[in-house]
Structures are given as C-alpha cells and as structure tokens.
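anyone seen this seq b4? input:
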Amino acid sequence: MITVEEYQERVLDQVRELAPRRVGVGDAHGLRLAEDVRAVLAVPPFVNSAMDGFAVRAADVASPPVTLPVRGDVPAGTTAPTAVVPGSAVRIMTGAPLPEGADAVVPVELTDQPPGAVELPAAVEVRRPVTAGAHLRGRGEDVRPGDTVLTAGTVLAATHLSAAVSAGHGELLVHPRPRVGVLATGDELCPPGVDPGPGRIPDSNSVLMATLVREAGAEPVLLGTVPDDPARLLEVVTGALPGLDVLVTSGGVSVGTRDVVKAAFAEQLHFTAVAMQPGKPQGFGLLEDRVLVFALPGNPVSVMVSFHVHVAPALRRLVGLPARVPLGTARAGVDWRCPPGRRQYLPVVVEDDGGPVPSVRPASAGGSGSHLVASLALAQALAVVPEDADAVSAGDEVGLLRW
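predicted toks r here
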C-alpha cells in the first residue's frame, strides 16, 4: 500500500490548469474570471433622469409656483429628445436622456400633475424649486471607461455579470468548468426507482458522482451504466472521450474475478492500494494523454470519500485554485474503532456544542463501512483519523474534512 499523500501527489503531478476561454456572459455564472474586466462604456452612459417628472432649467422654477408650457415627452430609450428652451418644460421618465437646454428634473410629485399613465399636459405647474443638477445621474458617475469593474479570480455571481454587461461586455475570459464523465459499472446495477429483484441493487453511484461533480463546480456528463463487459466499457469510454476533461468510474477496481475497469484499462491506468478506509483500491491515469481518469471503488461510501480526497483536489487545480484544502479540527463526541495502518475517513454528523471546536459523531452506527450508503444522508463531513490509531475516544481531537 502507498500513503494517501503519495497517491495524491501521483495524481496532482498529472493535472494541468485548463486554458481559459471566452464565453457569453449568460454562460459565465459561477465561473472564475481569468482577467481583470475594464469598462468599455461609461456607467451611466449619458446624463439621465433619476425621477419621473419634468426636465427644466432650474432658473425658470426658482420662484414657484411657476407654470411652464410642456414642449414634448421623453420616455426611456429616446435617442433625440425635445430640447428645453427657456421658460418651458419637457416631460421625462426615469432613465431617459436629459434634453438639451435642461439642467434639472422636477419630480412629478412637486407639480400639479398626477403620477402614472396620463396624457401629456399642455402646461405644468411647478410648486417647489429645484437646483441645477437635481435628480440627475451624471455620465460616468458610477464607472468611467477604463475603470476596473471586476478583478481576475472573481467567482462570477449575478451582480458581477450585470456589472460586466453595463460596462459594455458581451463575453468574458473565464476558467471553464471541467467536463466530467460519470460512469458506473456492474452487472448488479439497475435504474433508480425500479424493483431491483434478486441479486441486483439500484444504481445510486451515478447520481452520487454526478452530484458531487456539480457541487465541486464542474459539469457532469452522465454516461450511464456498463455491465461487467470490458469491450462494452471500452466502446462507451472511447466514444465519450472527445468531450471530456475528466472521467470518473465506480466499481471494477479491486481483486475480484470480474473487475471490468481493471480488465479494460490494465495498460493505460495504474491501479494501487491506498492506506485509507474506506477507498483502499484506486485507479488513475490519462487517456489520450489529456483526459484524467479516476477509477473509484464501487461501494457508495468509498465513492464519496474517494471523490473528496482525490478527485475534488484535481478539479480545483484544473480551474486554477489551490488543490489542497486545509483540514479543520473537531473533537470526538463518542468512542469508535479505527482500522490499524490505514487512515480513516469517517462520515460524521457535526454538532456545535459551544466548545472551541465542533463535536462529531459517526453518521452511522456501523462506522465507516463502505456499504452503509443509506447513512450518507446524515453525513455532514468526514472525520480524519491517522493511520497509527486503532481507536478514538470521546474528547480526542480528529481532523475534519468539510465539503
């Protein structure tokens, strides 16, 4: 067996950051920006009204009440608004460009006109004065051309994308989501939601792996299930490889007589035993010199643990993030047993009992057995216990790997 760190290094030595690519802003949500974004346009791009009301010259309404003839209407989107000549007004909507000759806006509430959809009046009575510049948004008041709007490394949320569009961008250079093929193997697997019958089990691994991929910020590509037939497995994988950056399989990697992944990829992948529990049998390598392949054990708890310990760090490196996430610290809330000579990754429930670190307890009464799939629903993290421990006592410090 090799240590967890040795296997992680073997994997990460083969991982290279994916090249950034330009995508439409609508496709960039959740991705990490690969360069600073500078404004092409001023925001706002022109002087416009901050209120529904009337564009005027402030000097004309300095001594209210004042009645001014209304020369026109300026709704938002107008490209050639009616000019305001001395002693007149133009009705204007919020966001509409300020007409030539005007230097202020009188809100409709400060006039004799009712708010809402009404006919354009012939005249308006202004009942309170406004100063020059009142209720206006200046060009470039928020951002000027050349200003930095977003910085490289930003994980793009809805507000970031809105800012980029407002500043004149339709595309952004981002670190793309890795496309991760998900493939479960085994004659015993049947589709979710059907009676499996004797000797068969529901394929929970495909859903588990796809969801873990999505939670890690990558894009899952569901490849279905393959029976214990090496030729069929090769056919499915070969057809899918052109569209993938990573392939994750489950099952067929141990020492059984029908370990299909081992049989199909004995020459391309390296299979080894890692000193961890669960997740001892592991396979890894490259196909077509570029697609990272993780061959995980078949038991769902082993899949979940192997993903967080080995696959997730590689996905982080692919998008330019630090591969390793520091372990937290927790305190055991109960006693449990450990497998001597293997690092234990125990699915746990995390309880904040007011102490300096959280308390944890096994999510299942069966401990870290790789077959205890139903208990995964309770797990919130993995307690990490060193290889030299054969037991944990209540109050002992353990590592904590959160997701």
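The domain at 48-137 is CATH 2.170.190.11 (Molybdopterin biosynthesis moeA protein; domain 3). The first helix runs from residue 4 to 12. kinda curious what u guys think
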